[in-house]
Design brief:
- By secondary structure, this protein is an alpha/beta fold.
- About 45% of the residues lie in helices and about 15% in strands.
- Strands 3-2-1-4-5-6-7-8 form an eight-stranded mixed beta sheet, with helices on both faces.
- α3 runs parallel beside α4 and α6 crosses α10.
- The longest helix is centred in the middle third of the chain and has 22 residues.
- It starts with 9 loop residues before the first strand and ends in a 9-residue tail after the last helix.
């Protein structure tokens, strides 16, 4: 893989305590970037921080604790980040909620369905709150994350009448619905930010081996299923190469609105993801759910 020099660059990676997020943190830190790892668990985050610093042989790695489902924590994080840093060159929205044991909708204490809050509204809010730093740091980049599993939902659209899981709910459907929202957000945001020096891209994550520590809560039969699946999975390190490419390569700066399987390999979303009216409505609904935000992206 091409070696890049990211000295002087500041990068936020959410969900950085394991899997692809941790692997990307190590790779980007090795290239000289200052990494801010965003993790929900203080304990797991602290352990991952030590491991990333050690493997990357870098002291320019920091940990901040955030639950991406809770808007008050996102706002607190942004306030603290701005206190510490004057610039932000890359924002990577890697964190996601996909708990296979969940059978019914779970609301956050802010009254939002947890999966949609974590996987879409959290990135939406954080991006907008950090817009001023991204603009001041231009050329800069926003990277969102979707899933190759969306292929199984070729007609999936935003269900504005089911955002709380009130009409029907399965954790798998809720997850892919939130990822469809992220793809649409990527395309919409890229157009809104065209000409600002901020590029926006989405990674379509494929079949990646899930770390054992994220599977400990699952029943035995499901653990066995993941053991078999792992034999045909790519490593988090391999998938992290796409994050690194989009964060560091000139293509990530010169192009915007891309949807990527791997470095240099672009893909198409389902046709509903390109619907401008639905994108506009999703933005308005997301804006309503995060209505205390001050912004200038409209």
């Amino acid at each position: 893989m091409t070696l890049y020099d990211l000295s002087g660059k500041v990068i936020i990676i959410t969900g950085a305590n394991s899997g692809i997020g941790k692997a990307a943190s190590i790779k980007l830190a090795r290239l000289g970037a200052t990494i801010v790892m965003v993790c929900r668990s203080k304990e797991r985050g602290a352990q991952a921080l030590d491991e990333v610093r050690s493997e990357a042989e870098s002291t320019k790695v920091e940990l901040l604790q955030v639950d991406m489902s809770l808007q008050r924590e996102i706002r607190q994080f942004v306030t603290e980040f701005k206190r510490r840093y004057e610039y932000l060159h890359v924002l990577i929205h890697n964190a996601a909620n996909f708990d296979h044991t969940q059978e019914e909708p779970v609301l956050t204490d802010e009254g939002l369905e947890t999966i949609f809050a974590t996987n879409h509204l959290g990135p939406f809010l954080m991006t907008r709150l950090l817009f001023d730093l991204l603009k001041a740091s231009a050329p800069s980049r926003v990277i969102t994350v979707a899933s190759k599993g969306l292929i199984s939902y070729p007609f999936l659209d935003i269900e504005f009448d089911n955002l709380y899981g009130e009409r029907n709910f399965s954790v798998q459907h809720a997850y892919y619905h939130s990822k469809q929202a992220q793809v649409m957000f990527t395309f919409d945001l890229a157009e809104r930010l065209r000409g600002t020096g901020i590029s926006v891209h989405c990674v379509r994550v494929g079949n990646v081996a899930i770390p054992n520590e994220r599977l400990s809560h699952l029943p035995h039969w499901m653990l066995r299923m993941y053991e078999l699946k792992r034999k045909f999975s790519m490593t988090p390190e391999k998938m992290a190469d796409t994050y690194v490419w989009l964060a560091a390569d000139p293509v990530g700066e010169l192009q915007t609105g891309g949807y990527w399987d791997a470095p240099g390999i672009s893909v198409k979303a389902n046709k509903n993801a390109y619907n401008k009216e639905t994108q506009k409505r999703l933005w308005a609904v997301s804006d309503l759910f995060t209505s205390s935000v001050e912004h200038d992206l409209d």
